[in-house]
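Hey, I'm writing a tutorial for new members on how sequence and structure tokens pair up, and I'd like a real worked example in the thread rather than a made-up one. If someone can provide the structure for the chain below, I'll link this post from the tutorial.
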Amino acid sequence: MRFTKMQGIGNDYVYVDCFRESVPTGLAELAKRISDRHFGVGGDGLILIRPSDKADARMQMLNADGSEAEMCGNGVRCVAKYVYDHGICQRDRLQIETGNGVLSLDLEVADGKVQRVRVNMGEPELEPAKIPVSLPGSNDLKQIVHLPIGDDLSIPGPPGWFEACGLDPRMTCVSMGNPHVTLYCRDVQKVPLETVGPAIETAPIFPRRINVHFVQVHSPREVTMRTWERGSGITLACGTGASAVAVSGVLTGRGNRKVLAHLPGGDLELEWSESGAVYMTGPATEVFSGDWIGG
């Protein structure tokens, strides 16, 4: 099976061109094996680029643990680059079908190759039941914005870590086709993400698990964030997460509608437009191609 390794600011996936390759069987197990950074190709998951009857291509995404995800902002930028660069469809605006519907992507092309992509990520979902978040009394809430975490979200970690990172113990929850929770702190580098990330991801109040983001605000126009991704763990970037962080900033009064997000793998430009849609702009890079022979 021919594959291509691609990354968007360090959020790396193994891509399979199902226009030219047969759709693999046993996808969950394949995703786990091919994503392994010691015994496989290595990546945050597996993405199939498939034909679509409603768009230029369809993205099917599986996390490194084999679970299927609805959407990946960095991943869909790479899908658009692949579709253009490999001649599947060469237009400056592409339509890509995802688990969160059909998205429009505008391509920045230089010397015949896509360099950056601007994605219309769609409108955020704020209703708790649709994110989903299941809290006592949440049926009466229209949004979960700056909600004290209380006893419903136990966050284990080394003694004193709340104080060390300056955590604001209030959460904001947003869906960008997949669920996200944002927590603000004074210093994201002091968050023990490897401990608190999985605990929050699998908390009972998140029935479909959740992506976890800790955010440090530099100004209303600039933030730094670290992410624990549902099903993949600590990643260098999360496009849907950065989009959710942009929305959270506006909802909490901490950010403008246009914001630059610094992630460990690089920067993303976000805009929550007055029309309601979130736009995300960032690079997409092809790393290498090869043949997967299993094992």
